[in-house]
């Protein structure tokens, strides 16, 4: 069952999103060779709590971190810790924030210093796919339209869509219906309606699409060891069009909502 949100409820998710974006910006300024993912996690947790909010991932099904920090061939769900960033790494940072009972979820993959041309194309392509997906978040479109534009853009660039991990509805819970695959056929699936709020998150590998689970039972890696990228927004479908509720692409992090 898809739980639709009123405009006031979407404003509350946006308010969680403002804190999330400020956290992402704080971490963006810290990502450099020599920094550990544990240090990034500690900075994120301290900042989120200082804003009167909670890190949504901490304790979720026993997850120990406040962020997910996933380098290189790790696609998602990396437990932050002793891993020290090196020049040329890619690092996906995924953040969830709960404010007044409403959740926002977003991710961004960073280049640590200069990276190879293929890595930079992977980042650019995955981010572009996310923005194309946002453009499909209009009342009257279908879920398959969202999935399809992601798949088409990524595969045209010669990369692969991870099949076993998907985006999701979001609201009072981090994971609500529907599931949002990053592949699919246009004009299929549920009809999009005003008030739906989605966490859209293309997960892309430079090689094949198979994955494996790490020894800690959390981290998900590309099975062939190829580089991975992950970008995510929480997006509200409104009468005025798509509303990005976690605008990490805007330096200010958006305006605080009521
Ligand atoms: Mg998510």
How would the blueprint of this fold be written?
Blueprint: H1 7-28, H2 37-50, E1 54-55, E2 67-71, E3 74-76, E4 90-99, E5 102-111, H3 117-135, H4 143-156, E6 160-161, E7 167-169, E8 176-180, E9 197-200, E10 203-205, E11 211-213, E12 220-222, E13 228-230, E14 233-238, E15 241-244
Antiparallel strand pairs: 1-4, 2-4, 3-12, 4-5, 6-10, 7-8, 7-9, 9-14, 10-13, 11-12, 14-15
Helix pairs in contact: 1-2, 3-4
Bound molecules: magnesium ion (MG).
Magnesium ion binds at residues 105, 168, 199, 201, 232.
Can you walk me through this structure?
With 258 residues, the chain is α+β, with helices and mostly antiparallel strands. The protein has one domain (7-245): Creatine Amidinohydrolase. 27% of the residues lie in helices and 26% in strands. It has 4 helices and 15 strands. The chain has helices at residues 7-28, 37-50, 117-135, 143-156, and strands spanning 54-55, 67-71, 74-76, 90-99, 102-111, 160-161, 167-169, 176-180, 197-200, 203-205, 211-213, 220-222, 228-230, 233-238, 241-244. Strand 11 and strand 12 form a beta hairpin. The longest helix is centred in the first third of the chain and has 22 residues, at 7-28. The protein is globular. Mean pLDDT is 96; it is low at 253-258. Magnesium ion binds at residues 105, 168, 199, 201, 232.
């Amino acid at each position: 069952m898809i739980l639709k949100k009123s405009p006031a409820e979407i404003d509350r998710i946006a308010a969680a999103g403002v804190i999330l974006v400020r956290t992402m910006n704080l971490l963006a300024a810290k990502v450099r060779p020599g920094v550990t993912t544990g240090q990034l996690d500690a900075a994120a947790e301290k900042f989120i709590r200082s804003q009167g909010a909670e890190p949504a991932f901490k304790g979720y099904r026993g997850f120990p971190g406040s962020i997910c920090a996933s380098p290189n061939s790790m696609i998602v769900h990396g437990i932050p810790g002793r891993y020290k960033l090196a020049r040329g790494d890619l690092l996906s940072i995924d953040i969830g924030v709960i404010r007044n009972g409403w959740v926002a979820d977003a991710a961004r993959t960073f280049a640590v210093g200069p990276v190879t041309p293929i890595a930079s194309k992977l980042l650019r392509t995955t981010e572009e796919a996310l923005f194309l997906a946002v453009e499909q978040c209009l009342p009257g479109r279908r879920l398959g339209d969202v999935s399809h534009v992601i798949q088409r853009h990524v595969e045209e660039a010669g990369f692969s869509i991870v099949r076993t991990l998907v985006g999701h509805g979001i609201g009072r819970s981090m994971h609500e219906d529907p599931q949002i695959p990053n592949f699919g056929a246009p004009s299929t699936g549920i009809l999009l309606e005003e008030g739906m709020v989605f966490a859209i998150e293309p997960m892309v590998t430079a090689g094949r699409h198979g994955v494996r689970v790490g020894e800690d039972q959390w981290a998900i890696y590309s099975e062939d060891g190829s580089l991975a990228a992950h970008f995510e927004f929480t997006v509200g479908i409104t009468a005025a069009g798509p509303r990005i509720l976690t605008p990490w692409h805007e330096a200010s992090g958006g305006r605080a909502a009521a």
